[in-house]
Amino acid sequence: MSVVASALFIAPVFAQDTPTPTPTPKPQLDPACMVTAVDKRDTSLINAFDTRSAQYRKALDTRKEALKAAWALTDIKDRNTALRVAWNNYKWAVRDARHAWAKDRNAAWQQFRTDAIQCHGSADSQFRGLDSSL
What we know:
There is one protein chain. By secondary structure, the chain is mostly helical. It has one domain (29-123). It contains three helices and no strands. α2 packs antiparallel against α3. The longest helix is centred in the C-terminal third of the chain and has 43 residues, at 76-118. The protein is rod-shaped, with a radius of gyration of 33 Å. The protein starts with a helix and ends in a 16-residue tail after the last helix.
């Protein structure tokens, strides 16, 4: 019974006077840093778009000349082969331009995310959907 009685009479533990923790301040976003990050991202996107446009232009010019040359052939078999080659070359040139654009676009956005973190925040998260189609 003494074990049961002593278990019932446990001495209360008094809280020690501990200082209340001060809340950690949130890092402040540096707007000037974000301006620089946005400028860097959009400049990269513009340059990538200009490159893509130039690649499309070159593909179209090359296709135009190849098709004109193909249609000038008198032998039907040679003409058909040249037409097929012209269209296939165009298809591959456009595909390569599209893949390069996607790679450059993704790199620009990844760099922007890294830069935004350096600005002590991820401010792009609330606006990401607005221009993510670029």
